[in-house]
Amino acid sequence: MAGVSPTPLLKDELDIVIPTIRNLDFLEMWRPFFQPYHLIIVQDGDPSKTIKVPEGFDYELYNRNDINRILGPKASCISFKDSACRCFGYMVSKKKYIYTIDDDCFVAKDPSGKDINALEQHIKNILSPATPYFFNTLYDPYRDGADFVRGYPFSLREGVPTAVSHGLWLNIPDYDAPTQLVKPRERNTRYVDAVMTIPKGTLFPMCGMNLAFNRELIGPAMYFGLMGDGQPIGRYDDMWAGWCTKVICDHLGLGIKTGLPYIWHSKASNPFVNLKKEYKGIYWQEEIIPFFQAVSLPKECTTVQQCYTELAKQVKAKLANVDPYFTKLADAMVTWIEAWDELNPSGEAPAKTSNVKAK
Ligand SMILES: O=c1ccn([C@@H]2O[C@H](COP(=O)(O)OP(=O)(O)O[C@H]3O[C@@H](CO)[C@H](O)[C@H]3O)[C@@H](O)[C@H]2O)c(=O)[nH]1
Ligand SMILES: [Mn+2]
């Protein structure tokens, strides 16, 4: 029928998860793209503070009191005063797909000046196969106007299911504190029109501010670790989740893509504060990365939960010598899986919150 807008893709199969400590006015700019979708807002910090959500959005909101009430003692695995709290939203969602975005990320424009529907591009990335076993030099062969190039084995052209779609950022790039300190005015103005699969056996620094994933394929691996209040490290939440997720995707034959879509990252967080949060991570990652590069998961591990529990064992055995924190983290990884399975037995109703649903 003329004038009837098409039903947005995955409208009832995708939740948008937003970690926040502030009012969500940023949603006004995303309204054309996000309004049809259900939001899961994870309110961090003081639960007595009211987070204002613009009218017309369908959402559920969880604050720390809700997390403690729903998880009981297992709430200890969910970070406080760090964006890592967002993973609680993945756990309580009942949808097949998740898109997570930070509240200082806005709609970017492509080189033609058109607003970028980041969610639509993530959905395209997630619904098309990935190619981790052989690199296609013309990038994503499943995009319109592209294909596999000469010499690409036909036996590999079916690809594998895509578990994660990792988007990028114009304006404020996701730099670590030292880089941000030496290049305070650097802005990313380079729009690269490419989506590519991260090859099997290669790790990558997963940023959580513009990220989509297939929750049914890889959800239990998306634990954002113990960060923030009471922890010796911060701003490595998404990195930890990305390293665990990548080794498990490699083991299970799943793919991870990076590139389009871009969002406009508007706020540079304080590099001095960031340095305090992340400096241990800058040392530790020189030992963490070789650990993940050497990880081997037994073939008996055929589910994400089994892989993740095995990974937690190896973290405890091989990283405790780096710092006692990793023993605590390994235990929290196990608690996370226990909580995930408690909230996600097959066919149960979703967790209820104490907050009023949107109007
Ligand atoms: O204590 C907190 C602080 C912030 N949040 C919410 O988390 C996101 C990201 O916050 P912010 O944009 O201030 O931080 P960045 O440094 O730009 O974030 C990048 O670092 C990663 C660290 O985890 C993060 O994923 C990257 O995007 C906002 O929505 C804040 O409202 C919070 O929940 N708790
Ligand atoms: Mn930010």
Please count the helical segments: 10
CATH homologous superfamily (4th level) name: Spore Coat Polysaccharide Biosynthesis Protein SpsA, Chain A
How many β strands by DSSP? 9
What is the H-and-E element order?
Answer: EHEEHHEEHEHEEHHEHHH
Can you identify the CATH class? Alpha Beta
- Tell me which CATH architecture applies here: Alpha-Beta Complex
CATH topology: Spore Coat Polysaccharide Biosynthesis Protein SpsA, Chain A
Number of domains: 1
Q: Termini distance?
A: 29 Å
What amount of the residues lies in strands? 15-25%
Radius of gyration: 20 Å
Question: Which stretches are low in confidence, meaning pLDDT under 50 for 5 or more residues running?
Answer: 347-359
Mean pLDDT: 95
Q: Helical residue percent?
A: 25-40%
* Class of secondary structure makeup: alpha/beta
